[in-house]
């Protein structure tokens, strides 16, 4: 794995000056992942969303690599087409047979967990040599903080409101990383922008494998999480330390926990600094908090078991 | 003219053959009745090593067109095929393919749209794509389906055009009937279509470009749309030119609008696709009885051949436009609306009536054509057209 010094000497492929918010987890994730790709020629694709609209405002582009945006639900299918073109043109002798390339598709959780799930599943099943990166900020942030299937239980969002009859999102979040691992792809992992070394190592592995790889990266959104811009990394770290966001990888079917958490902090520590959970800290919601903790425990134990059995 | 081989084959088989001969680099494919045998035959060609194309077994038509967009932007020649619900599922992507100016070629087996579900021919699916920015070609026969598909690559990839092309044939009627057709050899077709040299390719990593940028902050979006309009208008002379070259090569005539008996016709039917043959058959019979009947077949629907239709229909005493699809709530079917709009510019009004026929594969018997011509004769001899729109052949 590349050292920090090596990583920093790799080309910066996402130029500064884009219009993403200060403290946006998505730009941190993209920058670190692209650094981990080294200097191999690369094509990037992106689903409709904050990342796309903020980095490609015509006539500008922040992408120093060939870039394609198609629509919301089809970043995976689109990049699978780019990868197929590379193979087809290589077979036709129009691209040198020894040329190596990498292909990466980005999407937010709305574009990945929800509307893009079919497109992603298809691309992973077909075995394209590509990396799919979900930057998970737990809601449709680009349209103004609407609930997705990645939104944590209890979170306020503009379509999972807080009122007399309902206290934010009632359902648990979808475990997308396990779903992707169940595709039997060579590499799937869950990472966080708060753990750069872990993230870049996983990105390096994802790019290195032949065939499809999936990275689910926790990427705080200060605007949607109702936090200060300078708190993004600290809160992402709490997500890991509370076990809300277990850090693991599934390499050729072998599950492994990459960041151990010997003593998990209570989930409140992750929830409390975020305005989207503030309604949970009232006496009426004490029981809901217990349920949320139980859900976190259940998921944590599930991941622990998978990693213990197979890793 | 080149030597050609005469075959007995289905429309779908000939479309697959044409696609193979045009040598695409990528084929994203998803099966749907009655397009399925096209993607099956292409899969066979790929498995046999007769095509270098990368065949993508996408999980839906939406992904078929999404992957087509990715592959075409990457710099590949891309072909695919669909029908009905599949085309409808692609709707979003059809606009994107055209808006990104990607010369994708897609075959559509024209089929009814649900509900109720129906697998047979009408033009509801393809007419739903009429404002997506694609060039749209119709075939009457399997031969025309083969010919249109080959011409489509030349048209799409022309530097003045750079737009996707839909070539179509009527589901089952043309896609599954075995018909006589002449095919060229591989070398002739390859030479005719030439090699695709993309202008901005994603895979040109030394010159990185961004595709599909955000143009949502006033201004540029409107300019891009104007360029799209300019491009589809510019496609008309290109289609004519390519058609002429194709005719010279094959000896088969081609035009955006093809006419029969229109030199002196008093009454005429305007029609699209496989029904043109039925209309001509009846017109020919009527001619033996002294009725000056004619038929106008629209082979290219986008860009719409308004000028050609004005020329063909000028001075005709009564015209029936036959629509195999609905535009519910409008004053007629899509073809009727366009034809009437085109004829508005004529100084003398041409009496025009509209028939909706053959939806969901409803049989288009010769008697129906006879009925239409009979109505037209009445109108031509002074009867007031009692109708604007008629459902032909329903109870």
Description:
The complex is a heterodimer of chains A (311) and B (395). Chain A has twelve helices and eight strands. Chain A is α/β, with parallel strands linked by helices and 311 residues long. Chain A has a single domain, classed as 3-Layer(aba) Sandwich (Rossmann fold), CATH 3.40.50.970. The longest helix of chain A is centred in the C-terminal third of the chain and has 25 residues, at 286-310. Chain A is globular, with a radius of gyration of 19 Å. The two termini of chain A are 20 Å apart. The model of chain A has no long low-confidence stretch (mean pLDDT 97). Chain B is built from 13 helices and 16 strands. Chain B has two domains: 5-250, Thiamin diphosphate (ThDP)-binding fold, Pyr/PP domains (Rossmann fold), CATH 3.40.50; 257-391, 3-Layer(aba) Sandwich (Rossmann fold). In chain B, helix 13 links the parallel strand 15 and strand 16. The longest helix of chain B is centred in the middle third of the chain and has 31 residues, at 220-250. The mean pLDDT of chain B is 97. In chain B, helix 10 packs across helix 13 (366-380) and helix 11 (306-313) packs across helix 12. Chain B starts with a strand and ends with a strand. Classes of the chains: A alpha/beta (311), B alpha/beta (395). Chains A and B meet through strand 1, strand 2, helix 4 and helix 6 of A and strand 3, helix 3, helix 5 and strand 9 of B. Strand 2 (67-69) of chain A pairs parallel with strand 9 of chain B.
Oligomer: heterodimer
Taken together, the total number of domains of chain A comes to 1
The CATH first-level class of chain A comes to: Alpha Beta
Low-confidence stretches of chain A: none
Q: What fold name stands as the CATH topology of chain A?
A: Rossmann fold
Largest interface chains and counts: A-B, 46 and 45 residues
Spatial strand arrangement across the major sheet of chain A? 2-1-3-4-6-5-7-8
CATH class of the largest domain in chain B: Alpha Beta
Tell me the β content of chain A. 5-15%
């Amino acid at each position: 794995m590349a050292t920090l010094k090596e990583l920093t000497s790799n080309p910066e492929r996402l130029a500064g000056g884009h219009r993403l918010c200060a403290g946006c987890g998505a730009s941190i994730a993209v920058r670190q992942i692209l650094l981990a790709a080294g200097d191999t020629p690369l094509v990037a694709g992106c689903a409709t969303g904050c990342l796309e609209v903020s980095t490609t405002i015509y006539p500008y582009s922040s992408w120093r690599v060939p870039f394609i945006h198609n629509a919301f639900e089809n970043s995976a299918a689109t990049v699978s087409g780019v990868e197929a073109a590379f193979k087809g043109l290589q077979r036709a002798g129009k691209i040198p047979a020894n040329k190596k390339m990498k292909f990466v598709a980005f999407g937010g959780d709305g574009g990945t967990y929800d509307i893009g799930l079919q497109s992603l599943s298809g691309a992973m099943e077909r075995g394209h040599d590509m990396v799919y990166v979900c930057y998970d900020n737990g809601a449709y942030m680009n349209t103004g903080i609407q609930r997705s299937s990645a939104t944590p239980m209890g979170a306020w969002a503009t379509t999972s409101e807080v009122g007399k009859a309902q206290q934010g999102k009632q359902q648990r979040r979808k475990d997308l990383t396990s779903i992707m691992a169940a595709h039997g792809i060579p590499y799937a992992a869950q990472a966080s922008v708060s753990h750069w070394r872990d993230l870049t190592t996983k990105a390096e592995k994802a790019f290195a494998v032949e065939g499809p790889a999936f990275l689910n990266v926790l990427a705080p959104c200060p605007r949607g999480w109702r936090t200060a811009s300078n708190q993004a990394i600290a809160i992402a770290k709490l997500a890991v330390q509370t076990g809300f966001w277990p850090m693991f990888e599934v390499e050729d079917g072998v599950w492994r926990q990459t960041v151990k958490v010997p003593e998990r902090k209570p989930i409140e520590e992750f929830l409390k600094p975020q305005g989207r959970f503030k309604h949970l800290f009232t006496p009426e919601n004490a029981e809901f908090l217990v349920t949320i903790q139980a859900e976190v425990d259940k998921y944590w134990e599930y991941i622990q078991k998978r990693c213990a059995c197979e890793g | 003219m080149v030597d050609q081989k005469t075959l007995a084959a289905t429309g779908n088989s000939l479309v697959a053959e044409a696609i193979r001969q045009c040598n695409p680099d990528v084929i994203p494919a998803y099966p749907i009745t009655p397009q399925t045998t096209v993607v099956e035959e292409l899969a066979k060609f790929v498995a046999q090593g007769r095509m270098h194309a990368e065949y993508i077994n996408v999980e839906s038509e939406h992904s078929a067109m999404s992957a087509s967009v990715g592959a075409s932007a990457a710099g590949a020649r891309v072909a695919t095929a669909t029908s009905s619900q599949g085309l409808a599922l692609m709707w979003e992507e059809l606009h994107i393919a055209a808006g990104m100016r990607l010369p994708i070629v897609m075959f559509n087996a024209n089929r009814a749209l649900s509900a109720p579900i129906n697998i047979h021919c009408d033009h509801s699916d393809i007419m739903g794509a009429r404002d997506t920015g694609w060039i749209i070609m119709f075939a009457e026969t399997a031969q025309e389906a083969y010919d249109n598909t080959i011409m489509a690559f030349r048209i799409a990839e022309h530097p003045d055009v750079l737009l996707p092309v839909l070539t179509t044939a009527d589901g089952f009627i043309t896609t599954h009937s075995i018909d006589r057709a002449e095919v060229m050899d591989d070398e002739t077709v390859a030479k005719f279509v030439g090699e695709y040299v993309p202008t901005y390719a994603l895979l040109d990593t030394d010159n990185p470009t961004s595709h599909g940028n955000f143009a949502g902050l006033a201004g540029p979006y409107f300019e891009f749309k104007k360029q799209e309009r300019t491009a589809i208008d510019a496609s008309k002379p290109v289609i004519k030119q390519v058609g002429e070259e194709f005719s010279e090569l094959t000896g088969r005539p081609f035009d955006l609008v093809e006419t029969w008996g229109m030199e002196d016709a008093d009454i005429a039917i305007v029609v699209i696709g496989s029904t043109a043959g039925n209309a001509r058959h009846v017109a020919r019979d009527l001619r033996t009885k002294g009725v000056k009947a004619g038929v106008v077949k629209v082979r290219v629907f986008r860009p719409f051949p308004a000028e050609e239709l004005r020329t063909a229909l000028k001075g005709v005493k009564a015209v029936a436009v036959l629509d195999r699809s609905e535009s519910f709530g409008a004053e007629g079917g899509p073809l009727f609306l366009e034809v009437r709009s085109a004829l508005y510019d004529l100084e003398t009004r041409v009496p025009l009536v509209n028939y909706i026929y053959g939806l969901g594969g409803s049989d288009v018997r010769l008697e129906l054509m006879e009925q239409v011509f009979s109505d037209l004769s009445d109108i031509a001899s002074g009867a007031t057209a009692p109708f604007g729109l008629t459902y032909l052949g329903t109870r």
